[in-house]
Recover the amino acids of this structure.
């Protein structure tokens, strides 16, 4: 693996610092000093790369999306082969979505981003891109089974909506009150069932 440049290293540390800050406190309470301290860089270095705290946040959301895509490609490369059936690829795609949703830190972070999205247009646009890309990827894989594109899009939107909603509830309830693993497994089985039903209809 090639060595990171100083620029890449510093940006990576800033992104990690923003991640840590958003888990520990709200965005509103996070200061540039907090970010610089966690990134172990001088605060003036932040201004070399970014204009403001919001600029760092927007870059962080973009960073999350790129990491999500890289992780998804790696997951599918590890879990599927050239001989995998479209249904098997869909099943692994769903498993990936569930695996990410089971990350409670990531869920907490996105709850904060959802809140910011309600009154910050730039944040809303960036977060919307994250979910739009996730839906597009899921829809494309579902459509590869032969399901009509409209149905594939509906299944993808329902799947991601249900998974995200379930993740939100998992933050509100204790593990003893809410079986997130069980709920996620239900979503996986239900989505495959919907997919198979849609396939049968399209083949008639």
């Amino acid at each position: 693996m090639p060595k990171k440049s100083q620029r890449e290293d510093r940006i990576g540390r800033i992104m990690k610092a923003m991640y840590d800050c958003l888990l520990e406190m709200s965005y509103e309470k996070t200061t540039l000093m907090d970010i610089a301290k966690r990134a172990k860089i001088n605060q003036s270095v932040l201004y070399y790369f970014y204009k403001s705290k919001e600029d760092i946040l927007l870059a962080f959301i973009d960073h999350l999306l790129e990491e999500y895509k890289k992780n998804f490609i790696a997951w599918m490369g590890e879990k599927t082969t050239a001989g995998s059936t479209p249904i098997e690829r869909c099943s692994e795609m769903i498993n990936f979505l569930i695996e990410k949703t089971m990350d409670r830190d990531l869920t907490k972070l996105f709850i904060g981003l959802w809140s910011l999205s309600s009154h910050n247009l730039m944040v809303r646009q960036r977060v919307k891109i994250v979910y739009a890309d996730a839906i597009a990827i899921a829809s494309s894989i579902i459509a590869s089974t032969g399901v009509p594109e409209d149905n594939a899009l509906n299944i993808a939107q329902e799947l991601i909506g249900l998974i995200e909603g379930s993740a939100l509830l998992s933050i509100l309830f204790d593990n003893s009150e809410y079986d997130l693993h069980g709920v996620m497994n239900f979503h996986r089985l239900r989505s495959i069932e919907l997919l198979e039903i849609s396939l049968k209809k399209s083949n008639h």
